[in-house]
Each structure stands twice: as structure tokens, then as C-alpha cells.
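In response to reviewer comment 3 from the previous cycle, which asked for concrete evidence that the modeling workflow produces usable outputs, we include below a single protein chain processed end to end. The sequence was submitted unchanged, and the resulting C-alpha cells are shown without manual editing.
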Amino acid sequence: MPNVLNTEWLNSNSQRNFPFRENESLIPDNNTEFRLPNYIFVDFVISMPADINTRVYLASMLVVGEFVTFMFMDNANNLIASLAIQHTQHTTYQSYNITGTTSLYDDVRGKIILGDLSKFRDDVMDGTYSFTLETAEFEPCIVRPDLRGVRTITLTDGTVDSEPISGRVKLIAGSNAQLVYDAVHNAIIFNALSPIDGSYNQPCDCNDYLIPPAIRTINGIPIEDVEFTGDGKCVEVTKEGNKLIIKNTCSTPCCGCTELEFIKTNTDLVTSNITKLENYYARLNERLDQFITNALLSS
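The workflow returned the following C-alpha cells.
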């Protein structure tokens, strides 16, 4: 019987597909001559919103010099999280925290452990390696369903949303409001309370103060001493409700639009006749000058 080697959990995983499914090929669809080495991923666990149909896979691996970026997606091709490392600074079996990077999975948390990457640059060239759910799916046991009923709470004021509130959230009643826990229905009841005086406004200490008038002075004269009077000739001041009506009685027109239209029409007619007369005068003057010239030439 052969000796059993690398019985430790992480050592064993560095020589097999785990945490990927055992039957996954780990061959990228854009480079069929390459296979993802088993020693890169040796352990992985991630907590996600509870859904028995959620499956997780390695979508891509981007290698540029000393830096490596891994992208993780679900079976609906939604981005879950990403991890960027500097493989030259990595130590064997170092763990990295995973945090959801999209609004759909912003409360996802996980931890991933990478193995011995000392041979990484010998086995992996620069470039992007793309995988699918059929070639790089993780084992179902690494996805831990998050059974929290409420993932986060967001307050909305008009069109502005607050940052998501998570963890232990306390609801505090404000003015004229009461929060009651209903153990039977496992619910919180919001009650609106009517104060004793029937007012839903907070009490104000300024109710005993007199509100000053909106207009206090006019041109420096206190409003109680101001008096509006006409000049007795062309200005008349009258009061109508809360209005002061000031009339100029000397500038009322003596005629209306009908009379003005008649005057304009006749003015235009006179102007036209004057223009005709000026034209006739010009022609007559030209003929007179021509007659005098001919008379002088014939004498």
C-alpha cells in the first residue's frame, strides 16, 4: 500500500479541484491549452442571500506582471465580488477577505485561501483567462446561505437614498408617533398619536409673543403714523378692501380707440396727398427748367 502524503486539509486541496467541483475542467474558453493549477485555490467560503438556486463560479483571471485579479459571478452572470493580489507578496495559505462589489450583493462576505504561488509565473502567462459555470463552478458547500430576513434598510427622502443600514438597527419613535412590537404577528406597529390639545405640531414657546406687522415703516415713517392723501387736483387716493387705489384724474384720455383710428386714417390720407403733390411739383419744376433752357438756345 502506497504511503499517504499531504493529509492536511490545505495540502490535500492543493492537489485536487477543491474548492471547485471535482468534475470541472478548469480550462478557460479562450485558451484551451491552459488549465488552472490546483494549488492556486485551496479553500473558499462565502456567505450570500439565501437562495437554493444560487451557484458561484470563477468568471475570469487577469494576470498582469506581479498582479492577479479574480472575478466571481453567480449562475445568472451577475458579478458577486472580485479579488486583486500581488502574487510576489503572497505567502502560502494566506487568506483574503471577499466583499460584494455590486448593489445586488453588497452584503456578501467571504474568505478565500490561496496556496503556494512560487511557481505561478512559470505556469501562468500574462493575459485574461475566461471561464464559465460549466468549467469553473465552485462546490455548493462553499456557498453559505444567509438566512437573515432583512438584509439592509435604506431611508429615502424624495429622490435621495441613505447608505444601506445593516447589523443591529434600532427604530426610534419621533414626535406624535409610537412604535409597538406585536409578538403574535412578529411585527412592528406604527401608531400616530393625537396630543391632548389636538395639535400635531410640537409645542412652541413663542406662542405668547405678538407677531409684529409685516410692514413697519414706509420711507422711515412708522406705519401707524403714515397717511395717504391726494393733492386735491389730479391725484385721488381711495380704499377698496385691503387695497389703496391711486388715480391720476388729469391724464384720462379724451377719446377712445375708434376716434384714434379715424384720426390715423385721415392722417395717412393727408400724408399720401402731400407725397403726390411733392412729386407733381418736382416734375413741373423739371419741365420749367427745360423750357427756359430751350428758349435761351433759340434766341
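Residues 9-146 form one domain. We consider this sufficient to address the reviewer's concern, and the full set will be provided in the supplementary archive.
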